[in-house]
């Protein structure tokens, strides 16, 4: 394993200032950032469609890192990570597992948001001994309701964003109520807090591969989520347009013993809108 930076085990750096590190994964450089106490089981973050390191909500990352070792990374071909992005969820999961093992971990907690939640489920089902606890947000199961429609919805709101000079996440992640609009503006401002050494934007080819993988995941046969026998926390807003909220209830019903958190008047980014409530719940879950 090769790292470009080795911080103190007691480093208290915030996510906006965390250095971008690199690790060799089978001959390919993957970039990541880590913070929090370097002890115990780390929490690995798996992010959404079109996202790179600078798209993780700093309030959630910093909140978790107050007591947990947190690692955010760019999977293959995303942001500054090298290689070609797979066009399947299973391929993304294999790369994520290879990254985790390249860092030397034998056990991790996974926190998957949206597309990252698809990947996280695949990891748990294919490598059950690797994952201790699982957090799923804004996501759904293979073959879930409306997942195959993410591409047209995303493109429509990207066009809407371009016409209104707004980030598409303003429309995709939040409700149209005054509360949702305020939350959207606050979230997008938080994503700008890192001023230097920002990540590379996702390439069009990587974005296209992600869309292809999501559509195929939405069309594939349902998986046996009853085989997941680790603690799972499932969260979302009650009005998710991207991955309809019905999928959140479906996950909680099909995964044995899953805990469910639903935020009212909130969309796909419900945990961002309600980070002050969500972070303590997530910490309580992983520390229990």
TrEMBL record:
Key word Disulfide bond present: no
Domain AB hydrolase-1: 42-274
Classification via InterPro entries: AB_hydrolase, AB_hydrolase_1, AB_hydrolase_fold
UniProt cross-references to SUPFAM superfamilies, sorted A to Z: alpha/beta-Hydrolases
Keyword Hydrolase on entry: yes
Gene Ontology MF: a single term: hydrolase activity
Pfam families to which the protein is assigned, alphabetical: Abhydrolase_1 (PF00561)
Keywords: Hydrolase
PANTHER family in the record: AB HYDROLASE-1 DOMAIN-CONTAINING PROTEIN, HYDROLASE, ALPHA/BETA FOLD FAMILY PROTEIN
The protein's name in its UniProt record: Alpha/beta fold hydrolase
Organism: Mesorhizobium newzealandense
Upper lineage: Bacteria, Pseudomonadati, Pseudomonadota, Alphaproteobacteria, Hyphomicrobiales
């Amino acid at each position: 394993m090769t790292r470009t930076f080795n911080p103190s085990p007691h480093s208290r750096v915030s996510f906006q200032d965390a250095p971008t590190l690199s690790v060799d994964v089978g001959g390919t450089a993957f970039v990541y950032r880590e913070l929090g106490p370097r002890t115990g089981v780390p929490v690995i973050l798996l992010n959404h469609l079109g996202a790179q390191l600078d798209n993780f909500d700093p309030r959630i990352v910093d909140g978790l890192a107050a007591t947990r070792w947190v690692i955010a990374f760019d999977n293959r071909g995303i942001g500054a990570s090298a290689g070609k992005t797979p066009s399947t969820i299973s391929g993304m999961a294999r790369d994520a597992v290879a990254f985790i093992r390249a860092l030397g971990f034998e056990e991790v907690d996974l926190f998957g948001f949206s597309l990252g939640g698809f990947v996280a489920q695949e990891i748990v089902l294919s490598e059950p001994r690797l994952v201790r606890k699982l957090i799923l947000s804004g996501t759904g199961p293979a073959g879930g309701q409306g997942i195959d429609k993410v591409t047209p919805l995303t493109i429509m709101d990207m066009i809407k964003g371009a016409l209104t000079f707004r980030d598409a996440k303003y429309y995709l992640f939040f409700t149209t109520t005054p509360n949702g609009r305020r939350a959207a503006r606050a979230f997008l401002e938080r994503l700008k807090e890192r001023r230097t050494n920002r990540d590379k934007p996702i390439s069009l080819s990587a974005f296209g591969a992600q869309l292809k993988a999501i559509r195929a995941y939405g069309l594939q046969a349902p998986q046996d989520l009853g085989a997941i026998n680790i603690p799972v926390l499932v969260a979302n807003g009650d009005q998710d347009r991207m991955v309809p909220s019905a999928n959140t209830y479906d996950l909680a019903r099909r995964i044995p013993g899953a805990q469910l958190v639903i935020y009212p008047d909130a969309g796909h980014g419900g945990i961002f809108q309600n980070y002050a409530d969500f972070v303590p719940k997530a910490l309580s879950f992983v520390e229990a």
